[in-house]
């Protein structure tokens, strides 16, 4: 007994040292682990050349695995799978391989036939006759006819706010089994651009399915696309399977048009909202495609030999002025802010690195050949505080408080903070109020609440449909010139006329300044090197023509 | 005993009612409603109004509450606006994985804690005891979400042994099921095990110093 106690006492004396040693070991092993992760990265770096040459040699031998399952990690849960009811880009992305429309955009944003084979347009541009492709079957085996097209298109036209607004009154009607006619009250040059809208798109579904759905989501997901829905658990995953009877077009694949082939037998899309989990899953190769990855992990994934990184255009965080009341109802005041902003600094503050934004003055992308314009480019990023001060004086600024409201969404918030700092630099008195997104959606409808708010909008496929031109939308644009130009484009008789008017519209945009465009935000996605044919168009990935190597 | 149980159960009712009223009011205190959020930036005011009517959000608040409450009493928890499914179905479909995870985490916790606790008590005051107690301290101090991230980094990314994320039901096979549960269960169980280890150690120590143990010892 005594002996035991002694041993314990002896143990007690050396215990402190031992515990210290133990803790030191724990800390050291954590440190070693951290270092060894770094070392792995660096060996990956040096090993890249080797790995690439091996892949090059193997490229000819690399065979496509047609039974493969393509696995995708999506960053958030889509609100629905029915593309008629929501403008969510997540919904658009998931619905793309399942549903098709009469027309769709090619990579230059020009409408091309998909389920329509051809069309005739009356001289007054009020009557549009679509000749449908024959022998196209739905996923349930039924052949697509005009009845399905009429039911789907009329439901879509009613539910899509842009279509309702731009196309005005008018309905689709069946002429025979393979011909439908759209008759509008007013002539409309941009009809096909509206019918090809990429988000909240005009999906064709069987008549009996859309008939019973009303304005709620359809209960069955039956389309004509290269993949059919095999299982959908709305808060967890979407599983798609190859549709064997798919009738592909034969023209080369181009944007959302042309040939679509299901090169894998299944697609599994998981909704993985945690950023670090998506990044880790790309490193381990659990997913072939990772969507909406955090900018902070770009370098890490770029250094990984098994991962390819992709940067895609992803819309703009706009600065919207209240033109109904307050200081910015004065056009000169808005011009002052446009003159004074340093948009590179502002965008750096929002996106952290110049790789993640693109300084583009136009409201269209360069690929949008029919709409891209240089009009107003000289006013885009003036960064001229003296001119701003002079214009502010002209506008009669006398130190009144300017209220910016922004949601807590990171890019909104970052833009608002940068803007506040720059406006204060111009000698203005600025208050920033940050709210939750739902609150902003409500607050912004009352002009007495704010002077500036931040909103992110996708790049529109035609520049006339930007919400900030709409006189009833928050911000309340009230410009006769802009309205005339919008009407002019709508009633143009040919593309040259419309293109010229779009340039005038952009010039008017820089004169009237309904909103300020800082830069184009870039999205960051990654793919595993074992897949081929990955493409991304208008805010969403394209999952057909993607193959997985064995 | 039965009377006591019944009394306690009855006492829950007013508590639940108050909680329900408070939560219901908090949701409606903040501006913005589900209809605006669901339809997003581009929705027209008419569509928002339409949806509000469809969802019953235009009714007076007390009426909305009573409607919900009478539903709940009848076992109807309503429909999830976001998932477009009955809330009860969603609730039930999530019970399985929750139970699996909870049970597995408990098993891990006990499997780690009891032997370690006993060992620490038997080797009281030695290096082994102190080491075990240090690990237990670490277990209590490190939050499970952080441990989870470290485990993902080390076991999944670094060693590539287990999946980073996902879930497979029991019907996919026990091994497959456990493969996905092991890391989250360990992250949850480790913290539990730290507490149980300390409890086991102290109750073991109590017992070890009791007279009957001493008597047994002295008898050889």
What does this structure look like?
Chain B: Keywords: Cell membrane, Membrane, Transmembrane, Transmembrane helix, Transport. The complex is a heterodimer of chains A (550) and B (220). Chain A is 36% helix and 21% strand. With 550 residues, chain A is of the alpha+beta class. In chain A, strands 1, 8, 9, 10, 11, 12, 14 and 19 form an eight-stranded mixed β-sheet that branches. In chain A, strands 16-15-17-13-18 form a five-stranded mixed β-sheet. In chain A, α3 crosses α4 (161-167). The longest helix of chain A has 58 residues, at 2-59. Chain B is mainly alpha-helical and 220 residues long. Chain B has two domains: 2-81, no CATH class; 95-218, no CATH class. Chain B has helices spanning 2-29, 34-39, 45-55, 61-73, 87-122, 127-141, 144-158, 174-208, 211-218, and strands at 79-80, 85-86. Chain B has a two-stranded antiparallel sheet. In chain B, α5 (87-122) packs antiparallel against α6 (127-141), α5 (87-122) packs across α8 (174-208) and α6 (127-141) crosses α8. Chain B is elongated, with a radius of gyration of 26 Å. Chain B starts with a helix and ends with a helix. In chain B, 19% of the residues are buried. The interface between A and B is large, with 53 and 43 residues.
Taking all residues together, what is the mean pLDDT of chain A? 88
Strand content of chain B: under 5%
Fraction of residues in helix of chain A? 25-40%
Major protein interface: A-B, 53 and 43 residues
Provide the residue-averaged pLDDT of chain B: 87
Amino- and carboxy-terminal Cα gap of chain A: 69 Å
Q: Specify the number of helices of chain B.
A: 9
Evaluate the radius of gyration of chain B.
Answer: 26 Å
Main sheet attributes: strand count, strand direction, barrel closure of chain B? 2 strands, antiparallel
What's the order of the H and E elements of chain B?
HHHHEEHHHHH
Largest sheet of chain A: 8 strands, mixed
Helix content estimate of chain B: over 70%
Indicate the low-confidence ranges of chain B by residue numbers.
Answer: none
SSE-based structural type of chain B: mainly alpha
As a percent range, the share of strand residues of chain A is 15-25%
Report low-confidence residues of chain A grouped into runs of 5 or more: 1-13, 30-60
Q: Shape of chain B, please?
A: elongated
Amino- and carboxy-terminal Cα gap of chain B? 45 Å
The quaternary structure here is heterodimer
Calculate Rg of chain A over CA atoms. Answer: 28 Å
Transmembrane segments (chain B): 9-29, 99-122, 134-157, 177-196
Domain ABC transmembrane type-1 (chain B): 95-220
Subcellular location (chain B): Cell membrane
Keywords (chain B): Cell membrane, Membrane, Transmembrane, Transmembrane helix, Transport
């Amino acid at each position: 007994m005594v002996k035991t106690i002694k041993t314990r006492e002896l143990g007690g004396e050396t215990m402190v040292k031992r515990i210290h040693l133990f803790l030191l070991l724990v800390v050291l092993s954590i440190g070693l682990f951290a270092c060894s992760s770094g070392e792995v990265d660096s060996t990956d770096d040096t090993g890249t050349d080797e790995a690439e040459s091996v892949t090059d040699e193997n490229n000819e031998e690399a065979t496509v695995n047609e039974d493969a399952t393509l696995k995708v990690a999506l960053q958030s849960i889509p609100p629905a799978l029915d593309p008629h009811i929501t403008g969510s880009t997540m919904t658009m992305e998931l619905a793309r391989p399942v549903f098709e429309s009469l027309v769709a955009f090619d990579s230059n944003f020009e409408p091309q036939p998909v389920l329509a084979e051809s069309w005739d347009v009356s001289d007054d541009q009020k009557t549009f006759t679509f000749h449908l492709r024959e022998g196209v079957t739905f996923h349930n085996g039924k052949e697509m006819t005009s009845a399905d097209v009429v039911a789907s298109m009329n439901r879509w036209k009613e539910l899509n706010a842009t279509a309702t607004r731009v196309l005005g009154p008018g309905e689709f009607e069946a002429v025979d089994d393979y011909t439908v006619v759209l008759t509008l009250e007013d002539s409309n040059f941009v009809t096909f651009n509206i019918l090809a809208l990429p988000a909240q798109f005009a999906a064709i579904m069987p008549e009996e399915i859309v008939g019973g759905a009303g304005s709620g989501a359809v209960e069955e997901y039956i389309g004509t696309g290269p993949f059919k829905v095999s299982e959908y658990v709305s808060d967890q995953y979407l599983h798609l399977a190859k549709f064997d009877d798919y009738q592909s077009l034969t023209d080369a694949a181009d944007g959302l048009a042309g040939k679509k082939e299901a090169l894998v037998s299944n697609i599994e899309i998981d909704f993985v909202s945690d950023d670090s989990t998506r990044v880790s899953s790309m490193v381990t190769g659990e997913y072939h495609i990772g969507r909406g990855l955090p900018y902070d992990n770009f370098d890490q994934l770029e250094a990984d030999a098994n991962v390819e990184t992709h940067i895609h255009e992803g819309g703009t965080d706009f600065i919207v002025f209240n033109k109904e009341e307050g200081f910015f109802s004065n056009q000169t005041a808005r011009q002052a802010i446009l003159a004074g902003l340093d948009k590179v600094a502002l965008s750096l503050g929002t996106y952290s690195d110049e790789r993640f934004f693109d300084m583009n003055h136009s409201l269209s992308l360069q690929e949008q050949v029919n709409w891209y314009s240089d009009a107003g480019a000289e006013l885009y990023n003036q960064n001229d505080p003296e001119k701003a001060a002079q214009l502010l004086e002209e506008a009669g600024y006398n130190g009144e408080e300017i209220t910016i409201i922004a949601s807590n969404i990171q890019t909104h918030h970052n833009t608002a903070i940068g803007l506040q700092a720059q406006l204060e630099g111009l000698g203005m008195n600025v208050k920033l109020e940050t709210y939750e997104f739902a609150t902003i959606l409500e607050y912004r409808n009352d002009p007495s609440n704010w002077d500036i708010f931040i909103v992110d909008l996708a790049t529109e496929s035609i520049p006339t449909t930007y919400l900030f031109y709409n006189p009833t939308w928050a911000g309340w644009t009230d410009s006769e010139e802009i309205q005339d130009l919008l009407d002019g484009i709508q009633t143009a008789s040919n593309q040259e006329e419309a293109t010229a008017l779009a340039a005038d519209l952009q010039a008017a945009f820089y004169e009237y300044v309904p909103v300020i465009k800082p830069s184009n935000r870039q999205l960051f996605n990654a793919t595993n090197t074992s897949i081929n044919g990955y493409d991304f168009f208008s805010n969403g990935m394209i999952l057909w023509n993607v193959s997985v190597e064995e | 005993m039965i009377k006591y149980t019944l009394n306690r159960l009855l006492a829950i009712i007013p508590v639940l009612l108050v909680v329900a009223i408070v939560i219901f009011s908090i949701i409606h205190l903040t501006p913005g409603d589900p209809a605006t959020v669901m339809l997003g930036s581009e929705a027209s005011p008419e569509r928002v109004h339409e949806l509000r009517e469809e969802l019953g959000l235009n009714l007076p608040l007390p009426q909305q509450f009573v409607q919900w409450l009478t539903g709940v009493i009848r076992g109807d928890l309503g429909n999830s606006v976001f998932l477009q499914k009955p809330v009860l179905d969603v609730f039930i479909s999530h019970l399985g994985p929750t139970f699996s995870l909870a049970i597995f985490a408990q098993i891990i916790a006990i499997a780690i804690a009891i032997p370690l606790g006993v060992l620490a008590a038997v080797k009281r005051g030695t290096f082994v005891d102190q080491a075990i107690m240090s690990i237990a301290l670490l277990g209590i101090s490190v939050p499970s979400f952080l441990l989870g991230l470290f485990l993902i980094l080390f076991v999944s990314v670094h060693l590539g042994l287990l999946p980073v994320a996902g879930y497979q039901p029991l019907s996919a096979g026990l091994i497959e099921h456990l493969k996905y549960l092991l890391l989250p269960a360990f992250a949850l169980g480790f913290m539990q095990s730290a507490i149980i280890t300390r409890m086991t150690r102290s109750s073991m120590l109590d017992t070890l110093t009791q007279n009957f143990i001493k008597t047994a010892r002295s008898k050889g």
